Amino acid sequence: MESMGRRGYGRKAIVWSAITVLSAAAIVLAAHAGFAAEGTVKVGVLQSLSGTMAISEVTVKNAELLAIDEVNASGGVLGKKVVPVVEDGASDPAIFAQKAQKLIEEDKVVTVFGGWTSASRKAMLPVFERFHSLLWYPVQFEGNECSANIMYSGAQPNQQILPALDWAFEKGYKRIFLLGSDYVFPRTANLILKKHIVHRGGTVAGEEYVPLGGTDFSSVITKIKLARPDVVFNTLNGDSNVSFFKQMAAAGMPPSKLPVMSFSIAEQEAKAMGTSLVAGSYAAWNYFESLDTPVNHKFVAAYRAKYGKEAAVDDPMAHGYIDVLMWAAAVKKAKSFDPNAVRKAAVELAWDWSCMGSIKFAPDQSLYQTAYVGQLQADGEFKILWKSKQPLYPQPYDALAFPGKTCAVN
What we know:
Elements: H1 2-36, E1 40-47, H2 54-73, E2 81-88, H3 93-105, E3 112-114, H4 118-130, E4 135-137, E5 150-152, H5 161-170, E6 175-181, H6 184-199, E7 203-210, H7 218-227, E8 231-235, H8 240-250, E9 260-262, H9 267-273, H10 275-278, E10 282-285, H11 294-307, H12 315-334, H13 339-346, E11 350-354, E12 357-361, E13 367-368, E14 372-376, E15 382-387
Parallel strand pairs: 1-2, 1-3, 3-4, 4-5, 6-7, 6-8, 8-9, 9-10
Antiparallel strand pairs: 10-14, 11-12, 12-13, 14-15
Helix pairs in contact: 2-12, 3-4, 12-13
């Protein structure tokens, strides 16, 4: 009897599992069916509008809304006006997951644009997989992930942190101190960096982490002084950067004395922090506001016309903006809002006219893009010092740090 009961329970579990999957799929299909009879289609915009990450994410939300305005001004998508449903992830991964589910299940959005930290993305991923929906993620990250339910437009490690290491070694900076916020991206990025630093004959002068949002760097700064590095590689996120640079300056180590290469400070963060605090420091990205192309000038002008003539524009904002435009183009190509059809159409698109230059999604749904290193000037612009020779193919799994791992999206 006990054996029969267990078998019966197993059948029930299978049935309930099937019902759960069918219910999630039904939500998506019902949403798509509803749009056919309406003149609008809803999309989610999910960024941190409060908390430690708001310094970075509010303007990504702004850029995404700008792109939605432009899509609507050109006639919408498949004859429908795009209506954004904006939610606040509040710098909390659990809230990101909750809001993602609300957007899909209650608001019936066809796709979502958003996220910043890897913790927020990883919290949302099971939601998008469960509901067969699609997230457009605009920020650089540590790789080690690929999912059919995410379009990864931000840089993979070989498109940001490793080009920055190339530049550092070319400058003769071979003693490198690694500093980051204590979560997934900094720790994995630094694991990759350590492998490559040693492989290239350099020295890891130190490695320290502080909690996300942390403000006390006294012990870290003491360790940096003792380590005497040539450069600090900084993967701090959010407003922790304000405290770090202030305390470094107070300790007699401003960027003019000890170079700092940052991976989450761009024009927007520099402006919010006060340009004088971080002027002279370096950053590695796939876009800078100072890119001198007609398409980029048009993008910057459009953003400032909407949000103020002094507004700064940066890499994650450019990616968020492009994500919306590429989604709209993929929908038109697929002639459908269905996430599966859209993602497959997206990898067939090639853009030579984006504000970032030439870009294209690879089959694993990560973006080909050019890497740049810039130095922040007193006026808040980054002077581009170095660029990759061509757009770099994305490599989600670093071969040196994670040999044998590959990424395949069906």
